[in-house]
Amino acid sequence: MSLLVKICGLSTRETLETALDAGADMVGFVFFLPSPRHLSLELGRDLGRQVQRRALKVALTVDADDATLDNIMDALSPDIFQLHGKESVARLRDIKQKFGRPVMKAVPVATSADLAVLPGYAAVADRILFDARAPKDATRPGGLGEPFDWHLLENLDLNLPYMVSGGLHADNVTEALRVTRAGGVDVSSGVESASGVKDPEMIKAFIRAARATQDASQELSVR
Ligand SMILES: O=C(O)c1ccccc1NCC(=O)[C@H](O)[C@H](O)COP(=O)(O)O
């Protein structure tokens, strides 16, 4: 199965086009007001139209209510909802049923104890995104540019596709994949020149590095 590369927190036509041209498999749009990457519904609609099925559109929300999700469905028509809050297993089931879209549940990781939630979520979610647990005083639960200890996932036994995120960039994505064996990688801060400002060259470099890792591991596997 080929590696999924997600560029998250895109908010301009130019950088979205760069990510699509560079071969991103998923493009993430943040609908969380405290985030520097937050999109209005109008901008989400505009950027969503630009994607034109060249990548999967991921709508990122945090403990959003049905009305918010409904508005996002109308504006963006996401391919996947990324639920990055404290959503319960029952809430994941509820969202899947009401909106008919796959859900990717973000699981914050700081210690091995954080993995205890996996069996519950794995029974309902379509994909897991492992992210660094945000500090208690953080203004948002993700997109903070800090990694977690990838070795915590070394002995992971999960019958579900999963992505690794948190503090990734072009220079560490290979090691993150080597250690976690994740089927996907996700980045936001690591392709920004300033908070919320995506950098086209950094986007291209990240995707190149991720693809190079994918190619190398495929060569090894066919030997
Ligand atoms: O990106 C945000 O601003 C954000 C806000 C609230 C919840 C989640 C958020 N981002 C989630 C993502 O999927 C990020 O790509 C992921 O946390 C990795 O971010 P980074 O460490 O900055 O690469």
Automatic annotation (TrEMBL):
Pfam families named among the record's database cross-references: PRAI
Any GO MF annotation of the entry: phosphoribosylanthranilate isomerase activity
Keyword check for Transcription regulation: no
Domain spans labelled N-(5'phosphoribosyl) anthranilate isomerase (PRAI): 5-208
Superkingdom of the organism of origin: Bacteria
Enzyme Commission identifier(s): 5.3.1.24
GO biological process, one term: L-tryptophan biosynthetic process
Catalyzed reactions per annotation: N-(5-phospho-beta-D-ribosyl)anthranilate = 1-(2-carboxyphenylamino)-1-deoxy-D-ribulose 5-phosphate
Protein name, entry field: N-(5'-phosphoribosyl)anthranilate isomerase
Keyword field: Amino-acid biosynthesis, Aromatic amino acid biosynthesis, Isomerase, Tryptophan biosynthesis
Family: Belongs to the TrpF family.
Associated pathway: Amino-acid biosynthesis; L-tryptophan biosynthesis; L-tryptophan from chorismate: step 3/5
Source organism of this protein record: Bradyrhizobium niftali
InterPro entries on file: Aldolase_TIM, PRAI_dom, RibuloseP-bd_barrel, TrpF_fam
